[in-house]
Specification:
The chain has 175 residues and is α/β, with parallel strands linked by helices. The protein contains six helices and seven strands, in the order ββαβαβαβαβαβα. The protein has a single domain (15-171), classed as Rossmann fold (3-Layer(aba) Sandwich).
Length: 175
């Protein structure tokens, strides 16, 4: 069971729960093979995105939080080129409506840099009561900065695949 976030004090603003997509809601394991080898085949990795399976633990959490009255925001390292595909995938898998925050197509910052900056902007819209992410580096930075974090650990991959995903997020800033 993921760790429970520390609730932010009620300041009267709308409450927001922020969800990562890849590894939290979308099962990306089937496409990691494209970035496990050199040279990395980013075109194939992203082309297979629409075939991601749902991660039921993350989807159930998003549905539950929306039913509790929280606004849902999707904060993903995917870039803007994949906005419509991402929006359609979320809808197809029964996820609640919510704003999708993505990186610019030319933004290659590591997720641990991109996401906290984006999260600070999101926090201008309401009180962030939870951030759900699978990337340990992102989780560590957010916890250090005092955000209420749930570490999503329900998508397990073998060590090589997990390292490939970490490299894509943290070294190459690609997802």
């Amino acid at each position: 069971m993921p760790d429970a976030p520390t609730p932010a004090p009620d300041d009267g603003r709308p409450t927001i729960v922020v969800f990562d997509v890849d590894g939290v809601l979308a099962d990306v394991r089937h496409r990691l093979r494209h970035v496990e080898r050199r040279p990395k085949d980013w075109d194939s990795f992203f082309a297979a995105m629409d075939d991601d399976g749902p991660l039921t633990d993350g989807i159930a959490m998003a549905q539950q939080r929306a039913a509790e009255g929280h606004r849902v925001v999707y904060l993903t390292g995917r870039n803007e080129d994949y906005r419509s595909l991402t929006r359609d995938w979320l809808a197809r898998h029964g996820l609640p409506e919510g704003r999708i925050v993505m990186r610019r197509a030319d933004d290659r910052r590591p997720a641990r840099v991109f996401k906290p900056a984006a999260l600070r902007r999101i926090a201008g819209e309401g009180r962030v009561v939870a951030v759900v992410d699978d990337d340990a580096a992102v989780v560590d930075v957010l916890r250090r900065d005092g955000w209420p974090v749930v570490h999503a650990t329900w998508m397990t991959a073998d060590a090589e695949a997990q390292q490939s995903l970490f490299d894509a997020q943290e070294v190459e800033g690609r997802t």
